[in-house]
Every structure is written in structure tokens, then in C-alpha cells.
Amino acid sequence: MSKKIKVGVVGIGGIGRGTHLEAWMTNPDVEVVAVCDIIRERAEKAAQKHNIPYVFEDYKDLIALEDLDLVDICTPNKYHSIIAVDALNAGKNVMCEKPDAMNYEEVLKMKEAYERSGKLLMVMRNNRFTAESAFVKKFVEDGKMGEIYYAKCGWVRRRGIPGKGGWFTTKELSGGGPLIDLGVHMMDLTIWLMGNPRPVSVVGSTYSKFGQSQTLADSVNAAFGDAKEDGIYNVEDLATGYIKFDNGATMTVEFSWAENIERENRYYELMGTKAGARWHSSYFDSKLSIFSEEQGITTDLQPNFKKSGKREQHAGNLDHVVDCLLGRAKPIFVPQQGVDMIRIITAIYESAETGKEIIL
Ligand SMILES: NC(=O)c1ccc[n+]([C@@H]2O[C@H](COP(=O)([O-])OP(=O)(O)OC[C@H]3O[C@@H](n4cnc5c(N)ncnc54)[C@H](O)[C@@H]3O)[C@@H](O)[C@H]2O)c1
């Protein structure tokens, strides 16, 4: 295949500069033709480093480029839906960082624009792109877990507020705190492994106990976003929830940026009738275990993984987008999954506010 996918990246901050550009530049099927940031120096610096021809401050100028296949959105959450809809309407394919959008209305607009355009809309689901996730997905699809009827997942931090006072902690720019920031990662992974059941009801609670603290050793675990002294903190720092799905399965969730716990932990657990699976990752270790029973004896397996040769996490997801555009793969993510994800998040916030179960 000789055609290269021409990519323009919007938002050259932490993830745009550090992860996306590096991944695009090392994919032989990609040519990055434009970068855009409202802080022009950031885009200019990246363009110089990687020899990228076009630099813009306004994303509309980037979208207007004729010879551009894909718009990659790495801005704060507020602009995901706005830029994605404009790019799809302009006939461009879209890769967007998570979360898909700040709320349900916005994510529906994205899906509508996607359906009208006939273009690709992919939202970052980097945790699906690991050897462990691929193993469990196949294990489930091969029927080895039996029926998965219950799951738990979370991402909890002891101290890890991203860019305290900046856009991450300002609801109008982010849509919320750890639930929308970290929740998308682990809830998506878990629901995908469960076979994408549709959510039917949600109960949740949120707490904001650390944002106003002046003494908190904040952001020690969170490299993202620019912190702002005397900035805004009007989002939660802990969210919990309970979700029921259309196949009768249920899931409990917890997400925090700050909590008095031993240490940060990301995890999921799947309860199946034939086997259970638990994956967790903290700073000290990362482990997948499969719990089952053979001939009357309980068995605990820790699978070993051979490297597949494919890139993992964000680079793996971005490579997948290229494969889809070149007709080498079918999208692993469809926008309805994003609609369901943001619907769950919006409903947890609604339930936290009203004290009621939200029927979807
Ligand atoms: N998948 C992951 O693991 C992961 C990790 C970190 C961040 N993210 C997501 O990536 C996005 C960016 O996060 P970040 O940590 O890089 O934030 P950041 O604040 O470091 O970078 C955002 C950049 O966007 C620029 N920007 C803001 N508004 C813009 C606009 N309208 N047009 C063009 N540029 C604009 C800012 O100037 C900044 O340079 C967020 O949505 C976040 O949730 C995902």
C-alpha cells in the first residue's frame, strides 16, 4: 500500500505531544501534515521537531485542509464533540481522545455526524490494546468464562489530581472529575470484555473532599494538564456506581483522584459461571489471574504473554485507526459504545445529584 494517511493533530499538550505525535511519526503509513494548538508555540515547536508543514491556532483552518485524511483531537474534553462534529461534517475521518464528550447531548451529536458522514469515528480506547486484554477477550469469546453476570472495575488514586485548578478540575471544561477522566478507561474495558451489554439503569454517588485542601500533596501521580494556583475545582474526587445491563448482568465501579488508600490501583474483575478473571495494575505490579475449577479442584492461573509484535496501548489504538482506513481491519470501537459509555457517566452524575436510580 503506497498511500500514506495524512493526519492533522489538534491539541499539542501532554498527550498530543508526548504520545500521539510520537506514535504517528513512527507509523510508516502515516504522514503528519498539520498541527494546531491555541498556544501557537506548542504547535510550532512540534512542527519544527517533526518537520510538519502546517501550523494553525484555529482548528477550523486545519479541518479546511483539502489533502487531509484524519483529524486527531487531543484537546481538553470540552472541544471533543465540537471539533469532531465539524471535522466529520467537513468529510474528514476522526480520531478523538477519551472521554468521547462531556455529556449525553454532545456524544449523540458526534454519533449523528458520524452516521451522516460515512467516515470513521474512533475514540481512544487504549486499554483494549494490550496482550492481557486480547487474551481475556478471546477467552470470553471462546466461551471459557461461561456467562459473565457480574463485574467490578475501578481506578483509584491516593493522591493524583491532574492539573489541579486547570481544565481537568473545571466542570465546564472537563464534564467532571475522575469518573469521566478515569472511568471511561476501566468501564469501557470491562463492558467490552463482557461483550458490550447495553446499560439499563444506574445508581451513583460522588464526593468532593480534597479539591479545596491547601495542604494536599496533590497531583503527585498525575502528569497531565497544567495546574493553576487559585484555579477552579468544582468536580468530584470520588465517584461510585452500580450499573444494570440488558442481559441481567451488573457492575460496580469506583473512580478517584484522591482518597486515603494505600496506593493507586486500576482493576477489573469478571465473574463468569465457568471462570473468573481479575486484572490489576499498580506502580508495583500488574497481574492477570483466571480463577476456575478442574475435576473438583480450584485452579488459579497466571497466563504468560508472548509479545505479539504489535504496539500496545495508545500507539496500538492509533495503528488500528490506520489499519481501518487502509482497509486492513474493522473498527474495534463503534460510536454507539461511546454513547452508552457517556450515558452511564451522565446518569451516575444525575443519580448523585437527585439521590435516585436513573432508568436509561
Ligand atoms: N488516553 C489516555 O490515556 C489519556 C491520557 C491523558 C489525557 N487524555 C485526554 O487527552 C486530552 C488532552 O489531555 P492533556 O493531558 O494532553 O491536556 P493538556 O492540557 O496537557 O493539553 C491540551 C492542549 O490542547 C490545547 N487546546 C485547548 N483548547 C484548544 C482548542 N480549542 N484548539 C486547539 N488546541 C486547544 C491546549 O493549549 C493544550 O496544549 C483530554 O481529553 C484527556 O482526557 C487521555
Keywords, please?
alpha/beta; Rossmann fold; binds nicotinamide-adenine-dinucleotide; 32% helix; six-stranded parallel beta sheet; 15 strands; Dihydrodipicolinate Reductase, domain 2; 2 domains
Explain the layout of strands and helices.
Layout: E1 5-10, H1 14-25, E2 30-36, H2 40-50, E3 54-56, H3 59-63, E4 70-73, H4 80-89, E5 93-96, H5 104-117, E6 121-123, H6 131-141, E7 148-156, H7 171-174, H8 178-181, H9 183-193, E8 199-207, E9 238-245, E10 250-256, E11 265-272, E12 276-281, E13 286-294, E14 297-301, H10 313-325, H11 335-354, E15 358-359
Parallel strand pairs: 1-2, 1-4, 2-3, 4-5, 5-6, 7-10
Antiparallel strand pairs: 7-11, 8-9, 8-15, 9-10, 11-12, 12-13, 13-14
Helix pairs in contact: 1-10, 4-5, 5-11, 9-11
Count of folded domains: 2
Helix content: 25-40%
Q: Mind telling me the CATH superfamily name of the largest domain? A: Dihydrodipicolinate Reductase, domain 2
For the largest sheet, list the strands in their spatial order: 14-13-12-11-7-10-9-8-15
CATH class descriptor of the largest domain = Alpha Beta
Radius of gyration: 20 Å
**Major sheet: size, sense and barrel closure?**
9 strands, mixed
Number of helices: 11
The ligands bound in this entry are: nicotinamide-adenine-dinucleotide
Secondary-structure element string? EHEHEHEHEHEHEHHHEEEEEEEHHE
Structure characterization notes:
By secondary structure, the protein is of the alpha/beta class. Helix content is 32%, strand content 25%. The chain has eleven helices and 15 strands. It binds nicotinamide-adenine-dinucleotide. Residues 10-16, 36-39, 42, 59, 74-77, 79, 97-98, 124, 126, 181, 224-226 line the site of nicotinamide-adenine-dinucleotide.
